[in-house]
Write the structure tokens for this entry.
Amino acid sequence: MTAVLAVVLAAGTGGPVQAEGQTKGQAMDMGVGLAVDTAGGHVRVNVQVENRGKQTVYVPRALASASQLDGRLFDVRDARTGAEIPYQGRMVKRGPLTAADFLAVPAGGTHRHSIDITPAYAFAPGPHEYRLSYAGQAGSDVQALVAGSAGAALVAPAVTFKYTAR
């Protein structure tokens, strides 16, 4: 399966910034969009998964419905230097993936989710510009995803955002 990416960056300051990635394959046509909102002193990642295909697709619950991060889900970097921002959040040791680790998005359906990542990454004090991206797997066969034998790359390109940590 091949991945096709499209980038949409919101212009201006003060509003959320966005990126949108797409995964297209033989049996899937879906997209994932990210927006980062830093209002109120928090870094909130808003995720939108859109299934434009004709069958249900499965995406990781860690991206689509988790209330907090259990590991380094997003790649966060200093936008100027490219230095990785250390992950300092919870690290949950777990067993192999199961079907319960994936969220079903029905054909023609859209799923939205927001997660506050402020405490999970070591954002530097003061005003800084960061880049956040996501790369994972999605597929139309949840058992194949669990087995690690099938799936397509689900990629959202980097979103650049400004945040002032205290």
In short: Confidence is low (pLDDT under 50) at residues 1-22. Residues 142-147 form the longest helix (6 residues). The chain has two helices and ten strands.
